[in-house]
Amino acid sequence: MKTRISKRAGVLGICMMVAVVAMAMAPAQSEAQVIATGVNPNPVLFADALVHFLPINFAATAINFTTTAPNQRVAVFFNAECAVKGTDRNSQVNVNIIIDNVIVPPSVGDDVFCVDLGDNILHNWTRPSMNVWRVVPAAGVHVLRVTAQMFNFTPGVDQYRIDDSSVIVTR
Question: How many CA atoms lie within 13 A of 149 on its CB side?
Answer without folding.
Answer: 13
